[in-house]
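User: Fold this; tokens only.

Assistant: Input:
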Amino acid sequence: MNRHDSYNANPNLKKANVQQEWTKEELLEYSKCMDDPLYFIQNYVKIVSLDEGLVPFKMYPFQKEMVGTFHSNRFTICKLPRQSGKSTVMISYLLHYALFNPSVNIAILANKAATARDLLGRLQLAYEHLPHWLQQGVMSWNKGSLELENGSKILASSTSASAVRGGSYNIIFLDEFAYVPSNVAEQFFSSVYPTISSGKTTKVMIVSTPHGMNMFYKIWTEAEEQRNSYIPIEVHWSEVPGRDEKWKKETIANTSEQQFNTEFECEFLGSIDTLISPSKLRTLAYKTPLQSNAGLDVYEQPKEGNTYLLTADVSRGTSNDYSAYIVFDVSQVPYRIVAKYRDNEVKPLLFPQKIYQVARAYNQAFVLVEVNDIGEQVANAMQYDMEYDNMIMASMRGRAGQVLGGGFSGGKAQLGVRTTKAVKKIGCSNLKQMVEDNKLIIEDYDTINELSTFIVKGSSFEADAGCNDDMVACLFIFGWCTDQTYFKELTNNNIREQMYRENQDQLEQDMAPFGFVVNGLEDENIGGMIDEYGTRWSPIVRHDGYTNW
């Protein structure tokens, strides 16, 4: 090809409107490539190897199977270990799709814009090393996009709600989707769904290594259970040539077993320092709500005679912060989440009505609102404007801090509870114990997702970077509430005492070295003592005749 036929003086690229003269062999090869993407990739795609430079793409067996699945299905989700060549397979298939399908739009989206541009750059490199008779003429060619003579376009961008808004795409490729922040991932899917559903042949291909229990986890789980249209593809690290038990031991030695389980075993573990232990998080399975509408998910309809408690966390209605509430069935242990609301657009003035309607439906549920900020307005609106009877109040009682009650009872009293360091500490501690001891049943996806990224920060727990903890706030407020005398009176349940009874034997074994042992031979005069939490303290008689507790 002479320089007049090249695009921007690049001898490896053919410009548009250049007449192509074909040999019989080239026409035959072109036809084979068009009909079979695997044939095209194996014979004509070149990649850059760290050890060998530019070489033909020698595919592993699982990579060949992936191409076949992509080609035969509209929706595919792939869970693969790190450094398994997953992105190379994707861009090779996308190159074939753009070359042999006229007027198609393809979006390459990654957790970072730079990563997406790098993927496009690798596709462009493979394109440059195709024979000229296989190329389409180039209309536009830059770091963020390209356009070919056949009308096909490829865009590279970060995964965001605005990335593909307003366009119509034939293929959307989501790379390392598990690493996209949860709020961005949710907004993205709500934004692109009309784009996806607008065509009958539109393809969505999601490829990632797991990273917590997020949107990728949700789509993958539903695909495995055949609750969505995605075809799941899973690859074990041992399917990658060169990886064996020796390699595994060396990798763990240089990283950690936790990291290996996440990045190579592809387990959906939470962060290492989560409030709830990763082993417990793995067992939390979400289910589909009975009803779902406008932020409200209902898992269990109200039951006559049952007692319900609603805890609420109020936001200012900004895009990154959610107003949320959870309805708990507290009639018996284990407690259950029966409904939840979560919305990042609802205005504070409208939120009280959202709470009021659901609280009334659940047998006039007791309502506890977090009032640190504008939550006080929400609580006041329900109490005074809507005259809701079952608002829970708190009074300041000196060293005891905030104490719950059903009404104002002297001292500094307020509607709702302020989240202080003490409230959060006690709430998180109780929440952890309840969840890990199966005293609180959680089956809501958003709540499980937030728990998987609620991690240690300093001396407290907070949401990991780019994540939310609005549902968790409702949980630890509930956890704090369960420790209150007023809660025990409402429910006739003492969760701490019940957990003590169930674990009494183990507790006694643990305390044996310190002398706190109940031997059943109580002194009739002294006897022992049971505190408000159900703990029995037995006396120890010292050699000097005095008694220690």
